[in-house]
Amino acid sequence: MTVTAAAELSDLRSFLHGLPGVDKVGVEARAAALATRSIKTSSKAKAIDLAIRMVDLTTLEGADTPGKVRALCAKARRPDPADPTCPPAAAICVYPAMVKVAAEALAGSGVHLASVATAFPSGQAPLEVKLADTREAVADGADEIDMVISRGAFLAGEYTRVFDEIAAVKEACGGAHLKVILETGELATYDNIRRASWLAMLAGADFIKTSTGKVTVNATLPITLVMLEAVRDFRARHGRIIGVKPAGGIKTTKDAIKYLVLINETVGDDWLSPDRFRFGASSLLNDLLMQRTKLTTGHYAGPDYFTLD
Amino acid sequence: MFEYAPAPESRSVVDIAGSYGLFIDGAFDGGKDGNVFKTVNPATEEVLAEVAAAGPEDVDRAVAAARRAFGPWSALPGAERAKYLFRIARIIQERSRELAVLESLDNGKPIKESRDVDLPLVAAHFFYYAGWADKLAYAGFGPDPRPIGVTGQVIPWNFPLLMLAWKIAPALATGNTVVLKPAETTPLSALFFADVCRQAELPPGVVNIVTGAGDTGAYLVQHPDVNKVAFTGSTEVGREIARAVAGTGKRLTLELGGKAANIVFDDAPIDQAVEGIVNGIFFNQGHVCCAGSRLLVQESVADELLASLKRRMATLRVGDPLDKNTDIGAINSAAQLTRITELSEIGASEGAERWSPECTLPDRGFWFAPTIFTGVTQAHRIAREEIFGPVLSVLTFRTPEEAVAKANNTPYGLSAGIWTEKGSRILAVADKLRAGVVWANTFNKFDPASPFGGYKESGYGREGGRHGLEAYLA
């Protein structure tokens, strides 16, 4: 840990509350303005391929079965069976119980295997349970862990407790990458989202992620913009690049391209890579494939030309 | 790097004729003496059209037409006048794409702006004043306020159609008739507006458009049968007009220059403040009378803020106004470019530090890179004179008192901005600023319901809102 990081931790509360505020009207106006960028032809084609490579193809249902997970893994490896030039997705994201199945199905593909852990989605479990959840998933083959923070603790102002939990999970991850889900819809204000972003980064997150996808408000452009500003400022201060993952509610190519524009004009090149930016999504991939086919063939193919998994 | 492919708006949605006449008494005709001038696309220097230059006889005819129309128009019930204004507003909305492209071609402003800011505001202004036409007795100017008569209106080139709307909508709602002179470099949208009036079947003579240069405008405002003069433009010309109408009994409103202070306190929301600074000075190439051309930043956060501002400026996209992704378009004219260039050179020679992001400017047309000057003091000319271009002067302050003192230390007083998360500070500082508009944690936001106008050399009278009716009522 650097000296500045140590100093920031010595009084976590005053550091987090000393961060510049976020003006709600302003940040929403900025996100809306960037959403009007017109991305056409060659830049659209590049954006679609990049977005496909950034997808964390996700299934997080009580009804998930080994069969369903295997099908999704096959989809991630080869999203468009009709077109071998189509790149694979970044990762599969599943519950810990499904990690073993997914690990077998993805073996040798280069597609990452992410697992939600730490009593996803509520995070309302004892720390020991969360750590065991994490260790199990890593032992079964997950190389990325998507943890949830204790929003209750954060909202109660117990920042040190949230920090310690993240740090403990990070340790339990071993070599696996840690994505920290802030559940921004429950933090409610942009000031809280900025503070939670910094808290997670200081505690050792490799990625900060918006949402579980299980609450009413999931990823939005302004929320993601605030998080991108946080990772940008964190790098300026600490030199470490933290990734960002919006998740939940991103369904169309148009949506995905708006996020890429946001990255491009806020943090720039270094984040335009699956190592630094992911989409947590399920239905998005097929829309990307549909638009990709439209660009290469010049016409739209119906939904039956894309695999349902 | 994620490069955006060109995304040009189609030029084919607007059909520009080779030449245009004057719009007098509901019909277009050539000027009496046949003089014409050319209007060019400032982004390419291509000639867009030839336009008639109105001489004294033409202005006489236009004023006479407006006088004839005044009786019947002012006698209409307010609800009937409102119908015409609502109709005009709807036609503007229907033709907004065409008018937006036209405005960008003639003015040089980015299509993003003419499409998303100018045209929606133009329509909103007509809708707003249409709503007042039958409620004038309740506007607070007495039980039976009367129109003044024939109004002579002279507007600038920075927001050609929007300034037209600001002038014409309240004048018509209150029962006056209009002779309007658009700026010499941007006459086209006013002439298209004349066509909108015909489409709306506005009675002949209620709106007349006379194109021409400064002498046409001078003749119009001095015309003995004009009862009210409204001018938006430079302080220099505003002074001449004030002199010309002094003692004539004509009513006068002036909306002139500005040198607005955009004040950033140390507790400001920095990322949004940077957006507000960018919007304040680079919106419409800085061709905005209320532009935030002086940034006053608290010294304790100046370095951090300037680093953020420079990083943000590096993402500004300067170029083809018709490209949907362009943020900064062309400077409106060669003359304006010369003025911006000269004042910037003075800034550098007076010792301020000049900075622009790397940006490639097109070969043809009139262009100026977004520029900031740091280390500026109140003694620099670039801190005192209106540049009317994409040039920002950065000054620092230590205390709120110093910020207010510096903000007010200008002959102008049109607008100001305050950036702080502290509500009480917003109220305290706004109270002390001598500026007609004070924005808090935003900048360059307009609404037809909000009055607009200046202190001191920024002019007098208010446009917009209920207050905007007063200038057109006796």
UniProtKB/TrEMBL annotation, chain A:
Top-level taxon of origin: Bacteria
Stretches assigned to coiled coil: none
GO molecular function, one term: deoxyribose-phosphate aldolase activity
Organism: Actinoplanes campanulatus
Signal peptide: none
SUPFAM superfamilies, per the entry: Aldolase (SSF51569)
NCBIfam families per record: deoC
CDD domains registered for this protein in UniProt: DeoC (cd00959)
Pathway(s) per entry: Carbohydrate degradation; 2-deoxy-D-ribose 1-phosphate degradation; D-glyceraldehyde 3-phosphate and acetaldehyde from 2-deoxy-alpha-D-ribose 1-phosphate: step 2/2
GO biological process, one term: deoxyribonucleotide catabolic process
Catalytic activity from the UniProt record: 2-deoxy-D-ribose 5-phosphate = D-glyceraldehyde 3-phosphate + acetaldehyde
Protein family (similarity comment): Belongs to the DeoC/FbaB aldolase family. DeoC type 2 subfamily.
EC number(s) per entry: 4.1.2.4
Pfam family of the protein (one): DeoC
Entry protein name: Deoxyribose-phosphate aldolase
Keywords: Lyase, Schiff base
Claim: Lyase is one of the keywords in the record: yes
One Gene Ontology term, aspect cellular component: cytoplasm
Automatic annotation (TrEMBL), chain B:
Top-rank lineage group of the source organism: Bacteria
Gene3D superfamilies in the record: Aldehyde Dehydrogenase, Chain A, domain 1, Aldehyde Dehydrogenase, Chain A, domain 2
Record field: transmembrane: none
SUPFAM superfamilies: ALDH-like (SSF53720)
Active site: E255
Pfam hit, one: Aldedh
PROSITE patterns in alphabetical order: ALDEHYDE_DEHYDR_GLU
Its EC number(s): 1.2.1.3
Annotated signal sequence range: none
Keywords: Oxidoreductase
Domain Aldehyde dehydrogenase: residue ranges: 35-473
UniProt-recorded Gene Ontology molecular function terms: aldehyde dehydrogenase (NAD+) activity
Top-rank EC class of the record's enzyme: oxidoreductase
Similarity comment: family membership: Belongs to the aldehyde dehydrogenase family.
Record protein name field: Aldehyde dehydrogenase (NAD+)
Organism: Actinoplanes campanulatus
